[in-house]
């Protein structure tokens, strides 16, 4: 069978159908995926721009943060031997207690613990005083310039008729060896 020739009308319809199929295939498999990829890339660009703005904002504060870090790390440097630092810590605790007129009954240094890149100095102490004075004492020791941490605290009421409280606690301070 020999295929017959298409008429002009059939040829035009065939060309229009091919054109419609071409447009559909082009839209479905070329234009639409490119459009989706473009939208995804625009979202990535917006996210990266936001991230860049945050990084630039942080970078502007770099110098002030570096200065503050250096000041903090300077106060945490161990400048003396372990024994001398422990003596300094004991006198520091005693001076704060004397400053707020709090009586320290017993103060015992513990062995220095070496952990990774720092030394942990611990001190056990017992004191008698009013709860307000003891809390004030602990507040002063935990904040600048002392930076002690409280590991353990025990409160005992010494007598029913007085406001005196006996407090046993363990303080520690971290110092970075030079």
Describe this structure in words.
With 178 residues, the protein is an alpha+beta fold. 54% of the residues lie in helices and 27% in strands. Strand 5 and strand 6 form a beta hairpin. It is rod-shaped and about 120 Å long.
Short structural description:
The chain has 178 residues and is of the alpha+beta class.
Helix content: 40-55%
Helices and strands: which structural class? alpha+beta
Radius of gyration: 38 Å
Mean pLDDT: 87
State the end-to-end CA separation.
100 Å
The shape, in one word, is rod-shaped
Profile the largest sheet. 6 strands, mixed
Strand runs, count: 6
User: What's the multimeric state?
Assistant: single chain
Number of helices: 4
Q: Can you tag this structure with a few keywords?
A:
alpha+beta; 4 helices
Structural topology:
Blueprint: H1 8-60, H2 62-75, E1 77-78, H3 82-99, E2 103-109, E3 113-115, E4 118-130, H4 131-142, E5 149-157, E6 164-177
Parallel strand pairs: 1-6
Antiparallel strand pairs: 2-4, 3-4, 4-6, 5-6
């Amino acid at each position: 069978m020999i295929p017959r020739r298409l008429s002009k009308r059939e040829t035009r319809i065939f060309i229009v159908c091919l054109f419609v199929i071409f447009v559909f295939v082009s839209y479905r498999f070329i234009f639409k995926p490119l459009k989706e990829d473009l939208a995804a890339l625009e979202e990535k660009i917006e996210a990266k721009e936001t991230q860049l703005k945050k990084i630039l904002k942080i970078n502007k504060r770099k110098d002030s943060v570096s200065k503050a870090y250096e000041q903090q790390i300077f106060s945490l440097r161990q400048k003396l031997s372990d024994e001398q630092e422990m003596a300094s810590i004991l006198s520091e605790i005693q001076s704060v207690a004397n400053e707020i007129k709090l009586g320290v009954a017993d103060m015992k240094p513990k062995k220095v613990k070496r952990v990774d890149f720092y030394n942990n100095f611990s001190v056990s102490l017992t004191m008698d005083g009013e709860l307000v004075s003891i809390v004030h004492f602990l507040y002063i020791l935990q904040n600048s310039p002392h930076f002690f941490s409280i590991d353990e605290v025990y409160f005992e009421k010494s007598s029913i008729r007085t406001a005196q409280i006996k407090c046993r606690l363990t303080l520690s301070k971290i110092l970075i060896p030079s």
